[in-house]
Amino acid sequence: MTKKIHAIINGLPVEVQAGVTILDAARQVSVHIPTLCKHPDLDATAACGICIVRVKGTAKMLRACCTPLEANMEITTEDPEIIQVRRSVIEMILSKHPNECLTCGRSQNCELQTLAAHFGLRQTHLDSIVPDLPLDETTHAVTLDPRKCITCGRCIQVCQQIQDVWALSFLQRGIDTRISAAGDIHLADSPCVRCGQCSAHCPTGAIVEYDDTEEVWEKLRDPEAFCVAQIAPAVRVAIGEAFDFPVGTNLTGKTYAALRRMGFKAVFDTNFGADLTIMEEAHEFIERFAHGKSVLPLVTSCCPAWVDFMEKFHSDIIPNFSSCKSPQAMVGSLAKTYFAEKNKIDPAKIFVVSIMPCTAKKFEILRSKEMSSSGYQDVDVSLTTRELARMIKQSGIDFHAVPEEQPDHLLGAYTGAGTIFGATGGVMEAALRTAHYLITGENPSRMEFHMTRGLQGIKEGEITVAGKTVRIAVAHGLGNVEKLLAKAREARAAGQDPPYHFVEVMACPGGCVGGGGQPYGVTDELRTKRAAGLYQEDQAGLWRCSHDNPYVQKLYEEYLGQPLGEKSEQLLHTTYRPRPTYHR
All domains of the chain, ordered by start, with CATH? Predict the structure, then answer.
């Protein structure tokens, strides 16, 4: 049994498990200790020094984020001296920070700005020593402004420890310490996979999403352009956080309405593309699993950061990768072919905007030939959830009051299987439902495959379909991928059967609900609530299997022919290639 620790915090008795930090113990008795460098996803670094507290019997001020609570400690978290030290620390940070709040992408959502306001800092007494460092926008996915870095180290931790990418590092020492792509090169030339987890964990505007909103506004003002939008599964359960809705509230209908009021002439849903992905991917799996037409395991490919990571570091598994485009690309391709033909619209005038929880989608749409199989670039601009929230506010739309609307159903109707794509394990669960149908001719008796759900870094399991065992694995957070791939490689080298038949990988912890373009402040608690919103919609859906979507069935009957057919291969599939290798 784990030992219990008893202590006193601001006169309040507290009991916690041994090893719990002072910071977490204080939260259990509703005592707030300010922090700047600490994030719940990451190990404490004690870099900022703002969480200092006083312990009776010692003159030292301890940093609460990294100091374990000890038995019988009597802790004071606030007194005039502590407050003054914290103010001085914030002033020192501000002396190296540009005074650009009005034009910063994190204005009113910046942890440093919030702390300065809480401590009543109206002026600073230190000389400004803001470094003259260039902006790095080379990835066209995230923007790095090292002048705004407060050297908390969050971005480096998530990039190295959670994502195993190692694209970011600190350079130089002391007061000259700065954040940079490793080797002081452009971020686009580094191992960066554009996942945006650095931006999701940065407390200031040092790393934000690359802003494409002005290009979209320009097209919306163009009377010749036929602007269409599509929204990803995870966006609907996160957009509300920017408007003070409870976390996980599903706002699909309001988002459709807001997009139409902004000027979009058609509104589709990426969930439709998710259903289509499952139709193609499930048939791919059956071809490999039941007919032995290619290597196993089949590995999912709808996450662009994972694709980038694979092409850079694990190109030997390209033969295992599903050739399916991502759902956003499928919808974009069909918008400029099927939809254009049905509505007699010149596809050259169709401007497709995707609303994604992801910064890597901005990179995906720029993948040259393989993302323009229709003759046009599948998706013209990809916006993050954060960018859409800003555009809604700029439009003067009362998001709380706007009535719900429906999508344009030709490429907008979807099933519950398409919805759960937004949570880790959702692609696998959706694919298993349809794979079961393709093998047995019947939907599974239970639609839920709970072994794929939850926030465990790697999830493994087996299901039996028509007497055959299907071994599956799900990984989220790129740092977990290496363990799965090592097993597969070992089996291949030994000439053994693969340890898995089907593998899903999502680059971001929690899957798309925790994507790098989602509202700031993500934690496992928020990831869980966002995912719950998706599972609730799946549970309530009229159709819960992708193959039951009547609009998908109609698409194949009228236009595509059949999954993995000639036209499907042309419009819905892609290829991969090794990219430059980076040594980490």
Answer: 4-78 (3.10.20.740), 103-209 (3.30.70.20), 214-572 (3.40.50.1780)
